User: Fold this.
Amino acid sequence: MRYLDIGTAKKISRIGLGTWQFGSREWGYGEAYADRGAYQIVRRALELGVTLFDTAEIYGAGRSEQILGRALGEHGESVFIADKVFPLAPGGPRLKQRAKASASRLSVPRLDLYQVHYPNPLAGDRMIMRGMRSLQRAGLVGEVGVSNYSVARWRTAENRLRTRVLSNQVEYSLVNRSPELDLLPFAEAHDRIIIAFSPLAQGLLSGHYHGRSAPADGLRRASSHFSPENMERTKPLIGVLREVAQAHAATPAQIALAWALRRPVVAVIPGASSVEQLEHNVAAAEIQLADDEYQALQTASAWARDPAPAHAPLRGTLRDLKHCAGIGLYWITHYRMITG
Assistant:
């Protein structure tokens, strides 16, 4: 395993484990996975040197945190747990209540990294960062992070917090390279971290679905990643991934992870449906891509370098509003479960 050199109290593995699927019905993994499979995956991750475990209060209305906490057991205080709070009702007392509820479900005394799950499009970060600062002073939170933030909002959040906002969790993969425009340069210049979610584009970059049936779960079937147009458009990239994988006796998914890890401030948090998949993900940390292999992947990548159209900011704001409204409704519906 390789670890980030970022000056945190605990080591952060560059390949972590995302746990959205733990106890979340939308992934369709079932109760056997929640009761046994997730436990086995976490315990094997610990054996392999994984220290970064990512979860959120909203995943399964707190069930992901509970499952992860039980699986970690006595190791909970020695690993680096990254949790997320959705920015609805972010005032100080309520934020503290929710942080305590998350820590309780995880069976840990404090949260190593507490991330704002999404930028609230209707409010700034003054109130929530004031609350985060209070949680840090109280010892309930170690580091503060954000998720899906622009560089400008990341900087503003740091100004509000009055200290570093360690990380920004964003989608980053060979089919979504937009963080390279400014987020990655900012992180590299200021000793910050990019935590890459969906580094395999929800499994698209594994190549399993090219020329085969669509994903079984409704979440991915509804994703634009698996539209017929995108499947056709990414065929050349999958071909290069397979070619590079063959040279390393690896899988396309492992090469896609190794590509992301080429940037020194990136940690990836792929999920895992089985112990075998986890082992394959972790093994990607050992793969060193040659310069020509890396360049071939860059060239084949589907990322468009054209400047964004003039209406993109409005489209982004509308998308954020829709996203926050949907999750906010879920949060309100499951308020008692989430807040403990």
Notes: Confidence is low (pLDDT under 50) at residues 304-316. The longest strand covers residues 141-147. The chain has one domain: 17-339.
